[in-house]
C-alpha cells in the first residue's frame, strides 16, 4: 500500500519518516511570466545595493495606510446589510440601492487595484503598471455610468437582482 504512494515501509518503528515522504512534496519550480508585458530584469533576491544597506521604506501616508484599510472594512461590512435589507423587507429604497451599487463598485475597484499592485508591480513592469491602473480607472468610470443608467432608467441593482432570481411569469 505504501509503495503505491511513493513510500517505503520500514521495519524499524520510529524511523525517519520525513526522508521517505520527500517524494510527495517535490514539484518543479515554474516561473509565471506575462508574455505581452515587458519587464525589467531584477537583481538576485530583489536586493538593491548590498545586504548591509538600510531598508528605505515608502513615505507614510494616511490615505494609503490606516484610512485606506478602514475604508475597505467599512465598505465590505456595509455591503452585507445593504444587500439583505431590500430582500427581507420587500421595499426598494432608491437611496439604499444607489449606496449599495456604489459600494459594489468601490469594493470591486479596491480588489482589482490590489491585484494589479501584487501581480504587475512597478519595480518589474514599470510604466505598464501605470497603464493597468489607468485602464482600471477607465473601466470603473464606464461601470459607474452603467450603474447610473440602471439606477435612473431601470429598476436599480436590487430590482435587477430580484428579476434575475425570480422565475418569470408564464403567459396564458
Automatic annotation (TrEMBL):
User: What topology does it adopt in the membrane?
Assistant: Multi-pass membrane protein
- Which keywords are on file for this protein? Iron, Membrane, Metal-binding, Mitochondrion, Mitochondrion inner membrane, Transit peptide, Transmembrane, Transmembrane helix, Transport
Residues the entry annotates as binding a ubiquinone: 119
Source species, domain of life = Eukaryota
Transmembrane regions: 74-93, 132-150
Residues annotated for heme b binding in this entry? 107
Query: By its UniProt entry, which CDD domains does this protein fall under?
Result: SQR_TypeC_CybS
Task: Name the Gene Ontology molecular function terms of this record.
Answer: heme binding; metal ion binding; ubiquinone binding
Q: Tell me if Transmembrane helix is a UniProt keyword of this record.
A: yes
Q: Name one GO cellular component term.
A: membrane protein complex
InterPro entries given for it? CybS (IPR007992), SQR/QFR_C/D (IPR034804)
Q: Where in the cell is it found?
A: Mitochondrion inner membrane
A Pfam family for this UniProt protein?
CybS
Which biological process annotations from GO are given for this protein?
Answer: mitochondrial electron transport, succinate to ubiquinone; tricarboxylic acid cycle
PANTHER family according to UniProt: SUCCINATE DEHYDROGENASE, SUCCINATE DEHYDROGENASE [UBIQUINONE] CYTOCHROME B SMALL SUBUNIT, MITOCHONDRIAL
Instruction: Give the family per the record.
Output: Belongs to the CybS family.
Q: What is the protein's given name?
A: Succinate dehydrogenase [ubiquinone] cytochrome b small subunit
Amino acid at each position: 500500500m505504501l509503495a503505491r504512494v511513493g513510500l517505503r515501509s520500514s521495519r524499524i518503528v520510529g524511523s525517519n519518516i520525513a526522508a521517505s515522504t520527500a517524494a510527495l512534496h517535490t514539484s518543479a519550480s515554474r516561473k509565471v511570466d506575462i508574455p505581452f508585458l515587458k519587464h525589467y530584469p531584477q537583481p538576485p533576491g530583489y536586493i538593491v545595493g548590498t545586504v548591509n544597506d538600510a531598508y528605505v521604506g515608502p513615505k507614510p501616508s494616511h490615505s494609503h495606510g490606516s484610512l485606506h484599510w478602514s475604508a475597505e472594512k467599512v465598505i465590505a461590512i456595509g455591503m452585507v446589510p445593504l444587500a439583505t435589507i431590500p430582500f427581507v423587507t420587500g421595499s426598494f429604497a432608491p437611496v439604499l440601492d444607489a449606496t449599495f451599487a456604489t459600494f459594489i463598485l468601490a469594493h470591486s475597484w479596491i480588489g482589482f487595484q490590489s491585484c494589479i499592485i501584487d501581480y504587475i508591480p512597478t519595480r518589474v513592469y514599470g510604466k505598464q503598471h501605470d497603464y493597468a491602473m489607468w485602464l482600471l480607472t477607465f473601466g470603473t468610470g464606464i461601470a459607474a455610468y452603467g450603474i447610473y443608467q440602471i439606477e435612473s432608467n431601470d429598476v436599480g441593482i436590487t430590482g435587477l437582482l430580484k428579476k434575475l432570481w425570480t422565475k418569470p411569469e408564464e403567459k396564458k
